[in-house]
Amino acid sequence: MNMNALREFWFQFSRHRGAVAGVIIFVMILVMAATAGLVLDHGPLELVGKPFLRPGENFRYPLGTDSLGRDVLAGIFFGARVSLLIGVTATIIATTVGVTIGALSGYYGGWLDDGLMRFTEIFQTIPAFMLMIVIVAILQPSIGIIVTAIGLTSWPEIARLVRGEFVSLREREFVVASRGIGMSDIRIICTQILPNSIAPVVVMGSFIVARAILNESGLAFLGLGDPNVMSWGAMIGKGREVLRIAEYLTVIPGIAILLTVLALNMLGDGLNDALNPWQKER
Amino acid sequence: MSATHRYIIRRLLQAIPAIIGIITVFFILLNIAPGDAIDVLAGEAGTANPEYMERLRQLYGLDRPLYIQYLKYMWNIINLDLGFSYRHQMPVIDLIIQRLPATLLLMGSCLTLAFTIGTLLGVVAARYSGTGIDYFTTFVSLFCYSVPVFWLGLMMIILFSVKLGLLPSGGMVTLGAGYSGLAWFWDIVKHLAMPCASLALLYMAVYTRLMRASMLEVYDSDFVRTAHAKGLSARRIAIRHVMRNALLPVVTMFGLHTAGVLGGAVVVEVVFNWPGLGRLAFDAIFARDFNLLLSICVLSSILVIIVNIAIDLIYCLLDPRIEMH
Questions:
Q1: CB contact under 8 A, B21 and A258
Q2: B12-62 pLDDT, tens per residue?
Q3: In B, which residues are within 8 Å of A261 by CB distance?
C-alpha cells in the first residue's frame, strides 16, 4: 500500500468514531497483555491475600481477591494474554484454511469446486459450538486444542467469501493476461487475485477474532479451558459458584470480555467502511 | 410431480452425503478419545472387575472393531434406531423426546422474539439512517452482539433473582409446587423469561444489523427511486417496496440460526439449569455416552438441513423472481 492509499484509508477509517474508540480500547488491552508480567509481581494463579477481598477494600488488590485469595486484577491482566492469543491464533488457522479452500474452489471451479463446497457445507451444518465442545472435551483442554477447535469451526464463512471473490475475478482481463504470459496458477492465485480480494477477508477476520474470544470464554466457562492458565471465561465459571456472596468475581471478568469483543467489532465496522467504501454508510 | 416436489426430493437426496459426512466426523472424533462409557460406568460403580466390564462391552457391542461399530451405527440410523443410552439406561429416542419440548420452547420463543424486534429495529435504523436514532440502535445492537451470553445470563440472575427476587434463577418449573392451569403457565413463563431474553438479545443484534444493511442496499435500487418519483409516501415505500426485498438475507440468517436450536443453547441451558437437549448433550460428553451425543448432534444437523430447504421454499414465496433449481 503506498502513502496515498494509506492516507485515504486513515481518512475513511478515522471518520468512523466508533472504530477509533475501538482501536483505543484494543490498544489498551494489548498493553495490558504485554505488560502483565512487568506491572504485577505475582501471577494470576498465586494465592496472595485473604479470600473474598472486595474491590477497593485493599489497595494492593484494587479489584479484590477470589475465593482462594488470588488477585482478580492479575487474572484480568494475564487473562488478556490468553484471550488475545487464542483469538488471534484461531483466526489465523481459520483464515489459512478458509482462504486455501475458497481460492482453490473459486479459481478452478468444476468438480473440485463442487467437492470442496460440499465439504464446507458439512461444517456449516454442524452446530459450531457443539463441535468445539466435543473436540475440546474429548481431546483434553489445552491452549493448542482449544485454538484448533475454534479455528476448525470458523473457516467456512471465509471459504465462501473468498470463493465468491475468486469466481468474480478469475475471468477478468488482468487474470487472463497473466495466464497469457504463462504465469503459473499458483502465482496467479497468490500475486494477482488474492491481493485484490483480501479487503473483505481482513474485515471478516476482525469479526472472527471477536467471536473466537467469545467462544473461548464460553468453553472456559463450561470448565473446558486450559487449567494451567487463567482465562476470563474460567474466572466467570469460578465466580458463578459464589454468585450470591461475591458477585464482583463474575461481573469484572465479564466486563473485560465485553470491552475486548466490543472493541474488535467496532474496529471491524470501521475497517468495513474504510476498505469497502462502495458499501459505505449514508 | 410438480416442480416444487421435484425440488424438495432433489434437495433431500443431496443432503444424504452431508448427513453421512456429519455422522462420520462425529464418529471418528468420539472414538479418538481414550476410554468409553463402560470405563465411566465402572468407575462410578467402583468396580473395575475386568470380566464384568468385558461382559458389558459385549452386551453393547463395544468390543467389536471400529468399522463394524460404524457400519452398524449407520444401519441403525437408516432404520431410525438411535441406539441405547448407557448412562440413562433407556433408548436415546425416548430421552430426546423427553427433553425436546424444553429446548424447542426456549429456542422458539427466543428466535421469534429476536426476529420480530430485530427486524423492526433494523427497519427503524435504516429509515432514520445517519441520525441519532440510527447511531443509538447501531450501538445497542453492536453491544448485544459483543456480550458473552452466559455472562449476560448471570448478570440477569444477580439483578432479577438475587437483588430483586422477582424471577427464579433456574429450572423450568417450581419443583413440588404442583401448579395447574394458568398458574402452571405463568410459572413456566417466569422461568423462561431470563434464559430467553439473554439469548434473544444476541440474535436480535444480528437481525438488526443485517436488516439495516439490507434495507440500505435496497433503498439504493432503481425501483425504489421510481417509487419515489411516482410520489408514493415514504412509509409505503419503506414497507411495501424496501422491507419486503430486504427481508431475504435476514430470513436466510434465521434459517442458519435454527442450527443452534438443538445444541447451540448449551451455555444458556447450563447457566439456567434448563432441562433441555443442550445440557443433555453436554452431560453426555463427560459420561462418554456416545450414542446419545452422536444422536443429538446428527439430529440437529438434519434439522438444519430441513429448515434450510424450507427457507429456500419461503424465498420463492417472498420473491417470485427466484426460481427453484
A1: no
A2: 887 888 888 888 888 888 877 766 767 777 777 766 677 777 777 777 777
A3: 146-148
Of the candidates A124, A218, A265, which has its C-beta nearest B142's C-beta? A265
Specify the CATH number for the domain of residue A192.
1.10.3720.10
In a domain, A121, yes or no: yes
B16 close contact with A: CB closer than 8 A = no
Question: b/e for B200-222, b at 16 or more Cβ within 10 A?
Answer: bbbbbbbbbbbbbbbbbebbeee
The predicted complex's ipTM stands at 0.90
CA angle A184, A186, A189 (to 5 degrees): 110
Whether residue B257 has pLDDT greater than 60: yes
Residues 39-98 (B) with a CB less than 8 A from some CB of A: none
DSSP A226: -
Measured between alpha carbons, how far is A149 from A143 in angstroms, rounded to an integer?
A: 10
Alpha-carbon distance A33 to nearest alpha carbon in chain B (angstroms): 20
Provide the shortest C-alpha distance from residue A41 to chain B (in Å). 29
Let me know if residue A50 belongs to a domain.
Answer: no
- Strand-pairing partners, residue A65, are A71
Domains in chain B and their CATH numbers? Answer: 3-92 (no CATH), 100-148+199-318 (1.10.3720.10)
What distance in Å separates residue B180's CA from the closest CA in chain A? 31
Q: Do A119 and B21 touch (CB under 8 A)?
A: yes
Q: Is the pLDDT of residue A158 over 90?
A: yes
Number of domains in chain A: 1
Q: Is residue A2, in this structure, part of any structural domain at all? A: no
Higher-confidence residue: A120 or B239? A120
Q: How do residues A80-111 score in pLDDT, each as one tens digit?
A: 999 999 999 999 999 999 999 999 999 998 89
Could you tell me where the DSSP H helices lie in chain B?
A: 3-32, 37-45, 50-60, 66-78, 92-127, 132-146, 149-156, 181-219, 222-229, 234-236, 244-257, 259-263, 266-271, 277-286, 290-318
- Can you give the residue range of the structural domain that contains A126? 81-281
What's chain B's average pLDDT? 83
pLDDT at A278 over 60: no
Residue A74 lies in a domain: no
Interchain CB contact of B218 with A (< 8 Å): no
pTM for the predicted model, two decimal places = 0.89
Q: Choose among B17, B148, B263: nearest Cβ to A254.
A: B148
On the CB side of A263, CA atoms within 13 Å amount to 19
B130 vs A contacts (CB less than 8 Å): 281-282
Residues of chain B with Cβ-Cβ distance to A139 below 8 Å are 32-33
pLDDT at A78: 92
